Amino acid sequence: MIGVSRQQLVSLSVFAALAIGWEILASVYTVEAQPGEPMVAGWGTLFTRTLLSLSDYWQGGFGVPAVADGAARSYPAALLSIISHSLATLSRLASGLMLGGLFGLALGLAVSWSPWSRRLVQLPTQFLRALPLLAMVPLFQLWFGTYFFGQVLFVSYGVGVIVFAGVVNAVRTIPQIYIDNARVLGASRSHLYRTVILPAILPAMRSVVLLSLGAGWGAVLAAEYLGAQSGLGYIIVYAQQFGLLDRMFLIALLFILYTSASYWVIERLFTRLLAWSPSSQATNQ
Amino acid sequence: MTTDSSRRMIELVHLARNYTRADGQRVSAVDDVSLIVPEGEFVCLIGPSGCGKSTLLQMIAGLVGPSSGAIVVDGKEIDGPGRERGMVFQRDSVFPWMRVIDNVEYGLKCRGVAAGARRDIARDYLKRVGLSHVERAWPRELSGGMLKRVAIAAVFANGGEVLLLDEPFGALDYVTRRQLQEVLLDLWEEPGRAVPTVVFVTHDVDEALLLADRIVAMRNGGIVDDIAVGAARPRDTDTLLLPDMVAIKHTLLGHLGLAHAARAPAGERGAA
Predict the structure, then answer these.
(1) Are B142 and B150 in contact (CB under 8 A)?
(2) Cα A240 to Cα A37: distance, rounded to the nearest angstrom
(3) Cβ-based neighbours of A265, under 8 Å, separated by 6 or more
(4) pTM to 2 decimals?
(5) A185–B86: do the CB atoms touch at under 8 Å?
């Protein structure tokens, strides 16, 4: 236990050192991007003026009027602004992960299901995998619009490609003995997939899901940079247009918080799902 | 045991299996094997590694298709695995993502047996193999011998008429192996149900002598000998010292390529 708390102490010190380093940098490097807008904003500025300025993105509601309607900036408005734009981003991400995950899984399993399903799936998916994700943003915009559906579709595409490749690879490495055992015990093909293939690929899917989560965050930001009217990516692009570096930095910090939390949730989920797995697989990686 | 039964349970008709190796050479793993196993007989297949005994067993299980010839089980030519043929593998085949009892229930669940009924059957067989106390454990918490007991319980719970075992105890220590041989025989001879027909692949001569009604020796993909083992059951280490058994042992050692350890063959019926 002492060793653990010592490790935590080291981690915390590094964290504190980084924060202090940033503050020192802010006080030493006082160049401004534009009058009143420092290149490096100190913590004091970030959590007062910058935070307040996020009220600008609040559309109004819940008894807190929007700045655009003539109201003064306020912390409630800033907080509501953060919550509503975060929810917009998170709902796009979650829907995209769900949709892309399901499609990637289904297509990945189809490769091993039968010779026919393999022929149907393999070539088209090769094409899809070869397309560079970011190059597809404008095309997706024009095809599917800049609204929720188009953004979700873009995220699910980015996620689905990774999940597909991961599933195909994971299925390939399942020990034959489990499949043989299920077959001699009388499992039908659908039963085999439900009770053997799916659980057997789970340990390998842990890293695949973490990878696709990273791609999902990237994809949802990319989708919001281009044409969304809400979301954290929208705030970053909007702030960039006016050279508001402090706001961009605050949103970036928020992102670190969210991505870390999402990785933590996935890790916890898999630790639970893999309770059966030998501990080397369940706790490492 | 019930070799007097005339019902043919397993019939292999001119069975052959060829492979093409990575270097392009054709290899004949099983070459023109014909064999009839009556219902309830315990047959051991013995032979040096690479003689085709495991391939033969996998073909009877339906996991590997024959290149030519046919396999008839209980009057029907087989085409793939079937519930009536249970199999115990050498490597650990117990699903690590299912608790012990769920593993034992697996085959019953595949058949759609109701949850309550299959739990009762699984509990019964877990008790018979001495694993009632680990019913809710994960397989990773079990030893190699215990995992083998789970695999045996799962196969017997599934109620097949034919039992195929592919060097099931080959990776276990001597004591565990002897214990499991007894567990297997107890289940095989279990009163109140039809005695399953067993094909047991092994490379261990003593194991074959302890278990089998009949020992079939293989070499280079073919059957080279077919010996009836008449000794009464239950057998123990002293049974192995009976003159008939010693003679069979010498014959088998000769077939395994250990001629220097063997004397003149006796008590055999010649190649099939």
Answers:
(1) yes
(2) 12
(3) none
(4) 0.86
(5) yes
